[in-house]
Write a structure and sequence with these properties.
Layout lengths: L9 H19 L7 H24 L3 H25 L8 H22 L4 H22 L4 H31 L11
Amino acid sequence: MGNTKLANPAPLGLMGFGMTTILLNLHNIGVFPMDGVILAMGIFYGGIAQIFAGLLEYKKGNTFGLTAFTSYGSFWLTLVAILLLPKMGLADAANAQFMGVYLGLWGVFTLFMFFGTLVGNRALQFVFLSLTVLFALLSVGHLVDNGEGIIHVAGWIGLVCGASAIYLAMGEVLNEQFGRTVLPIGEKH
């Protein structure tokens, strides 16, 4: 029983994060309105699927993966709640500056998590570094008056960040599936 190989849950979490991040940032750059597509992905794939991935990382003894995926899954669920609660009459709309503080706290968390990636592969480092920049720009964009331009720039960073997470997820899946490097992810040796 001790020889049972466990599957790698990271690609599930990375895909949930990456795809949902791309959808939200297509909104941030002004391509699509905030609608049910983003909110549904935020609940089910960005939120719940990432939390599942984090809990599966627990089983593998990966504290970093547990912390990252359950936290970012919870980020997506809280973000959707912040957007939906006012529409349901359960809360006032979020204050823009307070939203900036919320995003800033996520940026601080992400910066510390980035330091944890320095022992990992280059692709993971890029995901967390670009996510740190994304949160910083989104935070500033909400804290300042007329920050729409900053949020627009953040949206482009978010598209790159989300795409990098998808690339890493597919690199991990395909490299394992084929037993060789199909998509290089900058492994540490």
